[in-house]
Amino acid sequence: MSHLPPLEPLDCDGDPASVGLRWEKWKRALELYLIATNVTKAEAKRAVLLHMGGLSLQEIYYNIPGAHLETVANSDTDIFTVAINKLDEYFAPKQSRVYERHLFRLIKQETGEKFDKFLVRLRHQSSKCKFTAPDENMIDQITEKCESAKLRKTILTLGDDVTLDKIISEANALETVNRQLNNFGLPGPSKEISVNRLETRSVKNKSSSNSCSRCSGNHPSDSKLCPARDKKCLKCGFIGHYRKQCRTRAYKRKANDNVSKPNQAIHPDKKPKNKSDEVDYIFHIEGDDTVKCILGNVGIEMLIDSGSKYNIIGDETWRVLKSKKIRVENQTNNPDKTFKAYGSENPLTILGAFDATIMVNSEFPTVKATFYVVKNGTRNLLGKDTAIKLGVLKLGIGVNAVDGVNSGTNYHQW
Predict the structure, then answer these.
(1) What does each C-alpha distance from 42 to 131, 243, 329 come to in angstroms?
(2) What is the total count of domains within the chain?
(3) Quick one: CA dihedral 71, 75, 81, 85, positive or negative?
(4) Are 247 and 236 in contact (CB under 8 A)?
(5) Are 351 and 371 in contact (CB under 8 A)?
(6) Mapping DSSP to helix (H, G, I), strand (E, B) and coil, where does residue 220 land?
(7) DSSP 8-state symbol, 277
(8) Is residue 21 assigned to a domain?
(9) Alpha-carbon torsion 237, 239, 245, 249, what sign?
């Protein structure tokens, strides 16, 4: 017998929901161990099974009716196979195929997850679904839930000629090319984001993409033909929009009034506004273009918000980042901030804040910034100040999305 290290005992006392999966993995390791040590007799194989499995497994085994059979001469009964089958029935009770297929349909490629790991998860769940055409179902799930838009386009281009092997080959090729581009210091495929001035952000008519935020006319906000481009707003005093379209913050209007009326006395008893009373508005870029970043050593996609200087992530994203061991500093549960979605009177629920490093590519700077976690947040927003420091935002011109690597320090409280 070869001198191999023994197997770790099977953990039978852990999470009941995953004990079946642990048994399957441990049983596979046992089968390899028996082959490597050249154990072939059924009685010896069963003894190795019980010895390596540990006391917890032995207690379960000896309490399963019909699991332990005595060795009978000239009998065709394989006592090792009987033991394995009884333990299979104990650890892996039959599941509903409908439920297993439901779990299969929920699997998607996570942000930054390699395709081969995504494929392994699909294959494992597919084996439980008893599909009559497993490859067809795998192809459908990959097409719908893969992260790469280029891979999805290739699958659709192949049409009925597509096979799972072709998809795997194409996915590996795309990942290899992206890795080589990163080694050259070049960004991957770029996405162009059109960024407007703060005062021209349109929120009044979300259903019409051609509604001008300066005059409400039926043309783009940056049109040179807009009649409000050179007009002074009678509400805030800024040039570039009509009064009915004014979205300028109140404190900016007051500051502008003081500049335009230098001889007007300021009331001596008026106290400055407390910082905790200030309200910061969160804007939204039209479209779905995002920038791939590395936040606290974890990949994340963020939408550049040129209308706000604060970085915002949703609570669901925060849970994913924690599961991937994001590195953060200076975490707090009660940040002294009040945020409102632009055009809304209801403040957002802020769960906490933290500092972390963020970067988009090795050729670009690494920036340390503060991020706020918002309950039920639907988009991850990269504030204007951070985006400018990262070099991915210049007001008035296009912004390219790039990739990078990052690091930080671990803290998780909420």
Answers:
(1) 33, 89, 57
(2) 4
(3) negative
(4) no
(5) no
(6) coil
(7) G
(8) yes
(9) negative
Domain that holds residue 152: 97-183
Contacts (Cβ under 8 Å, ≥6 apart) of 196: 221, 222, 306
Express each pLDDT in 199-243 by its tens digit: 333 333 443 445 788 788 877 777 777 888 777 787 777 788 887
DSSP of 89-114: HHHS----HHHHHHHHHH--PPTT--
Distance of CA 319 to the CA centre of its chain: 9
- Alpha helices (runs of H) in 279-344, residue ranges in sequence order: 315-323
Could you please report the per-residue DSSP string of 123-167?
Answer: HHHHTTTT-SSHHHHHHHHHHHH-S-HHHHHHHHHHGGG--HHHH
Q: Are 382 and 309 in contact (CB under 8 A)?
A: no
100 burial via Cβ count (<10 Å: 0-12, 13-18, 19+): middle
pLDDT for res 169: 92
CATH number at residue 317: 2.40.70.10
- Give pLDDT tens digits for 19-39: 777 888 898 899 999 999 999
Q: What's the CA gap between 397 and 383, in Å, rounded?
A: 16
Instruction: Evaluate whether residue 372 is within a structural domain.
Output: yes
For residue 372, with 0-12 CB atoms within 10 Å meaning exposed, 13-18 middle and 19 or more buried, which class applies? buried
Within-domain flag for 258: no
Record the tokens describing residue 192, joined without a space. 């162009």
Q: Are 25 and 47 in contact (CB under 8 A)?
A: no
Query: What residues does 370 pair with on adjacent strands?
Result: 355
